[in-house]
Amino acid sequence: MKQAATRTRRRPADPARREGKAPLLFAALFIVCLAGAAWFAYLPPVVPAAYGIFSISAFAVYAIDKSAARHGRWRTPEKTLHLLALIGGWPGALLAQRTLRHKSQKPAFQTVFLLTVLANCALLGWYAYASFMLPASS
What we know:
With 138 residues, the chain is mainly α.
């Protein structure tokens, strides 16, 4: 009598684990640096507050879009998601991508998302430099 071969089913790898924790660590480090810059008056407190508001908004929009995708409803345009990331919501968007597993497997989306993060960081760096390193013109 032959024994039936038992086959164990493996769950697909969690995208956050497969991609590593580096992006989330970068976002956490960014937030800590942003808070420190405001604490030591290198940035006005409104800047970290705006990042917080935009990040919460981005996370909420990603969650709504994920729900819409599951239920076949109207979806949020990708350009809206990218705009939220560009204006400062990228930490919340990144957290949403990892926790909700939404938009994390689309290479084209991820490429544009990375460019929005880099552009946002560059603009913030330019703002900080221009505001506090360049002499004020009279």
